[in-house]
Design a protein that fits this description.
Chain lengths: 162, 162
DNA sequence: AGCAGTTGGTTCACATGTCAACCAGATCGG
DNA sequence: CCGATCTGGTTGACATGTGAACCAACTGCT
């Protein structure tokens, strides 16, 4: 087995900086959001998608597609949000097994209040620290990597592959 | 209350690309690592730090500082890793309450086997997709944001290293 | 129509992370 | 020394994420 190409200085630095930034950013945003609105980032994303959807409602699987969540995760999370009165589940007319998820009035109020704060936090901690060129580069990087990941993940995972 | 500055096109794009990349990358690496070595990324990081430490051992709080994990998380995780025979806990001589965490032979073998694979995955999905300039920019971004986060966080963050 | 296979969702068991409370051993001020 | 306080670490209750099993409704094919 050949010795792999380890990461050199520059590569290490970029990789670690990214990971560290990510952890810090996620933790920061999660904490602020929860403190000020009682929402987790997961709640926030669900409500954001619902509030942008026509009539504030989406089929469960559509929501799952947008969020890229596992279906069991979505189901569990919606159950909790329903208990808290943030969303409601309705039966679908055209497909008898389907669930239509609707944002409630309370959910709507909460995300309306949370959104400006959250946006300000994202700006403050992230966007406003960077130049336009950096933002461009970042977007390009993100797209490249996502494309690559899509290519590497062909629906089923190659268990042996080596 | 004044209307906040929402994110413009460019900003949205960069932010979403970053978040999407992050999710995809984390999930990809987690899956590969677990499939091929039975380790989670959390396990991997613990073992990586231990294997680089003198004599393969660290005080629990030192390890926590390096990982930036909450102490209860570390304690819980080490408990599980101990059960699986990846690390062992010893009493500290100089401080009677202290725990010294040591990597076991089995833990050593596992990370030795996992490291090249993991590095290859990081390269394949991420590093090798980017130009040197992009890596530089990314490192700069990461540093800036981390610095900003440190300034925004009321608590003191025990900067490990330096 | 009828039956196989797919799809949308839920549920269970379990892995992992967080918070607060707790305990025991250090430390410090008299 | 003694007590107050700090520090390192563990624990228990609970929130959240994952995978497999399951159920019921839809689709396709004959």
């Amino acid at each position: 087995m050949t010795e792999p190409r380890w990461l050199d200085e520059r590569e290490q630095r970029a990789w670690r900086a990214l990971m560290a930034m990510q952890d810090g950013l996620a933790e920061f945003l999660e904490r602020r959001l929860r403190q000020r609105s009682g929402l987790s980032t997961a709640d926030y994303q669900v409500l954001a998608h619902l509030s942008e959807a026509p009539a504030g409602r989406l089929r469960s699987f559509e929501l799952g597609g947008l969020l890229r969540w596992e279906k069991s995760r979505l189901s569990q999370h919606l159950g909790r949000m329903e208990t808290r009165g943030l969303v409601s589940r309705e039966r679908c007319r055209t497909d008898q097994r389907g669930a239509v998820i609707a944002i409630t009035a309370r959910g709507g109020e909460l995300i309306e209040a949370a959104a400006p704060q959250h946006t300000a936090d994202v700006r403050d901690a992230f966007i406003d620290q960077l130049t336009e060129a950096e933002l461009e580069t970042l977007a390009a990087i993100g797209d490249k990597v996502r494309t690559r990941l899509a290519a590497l993940t062909p629906k089923g995972q190659p268990s042996s592959g080596t």
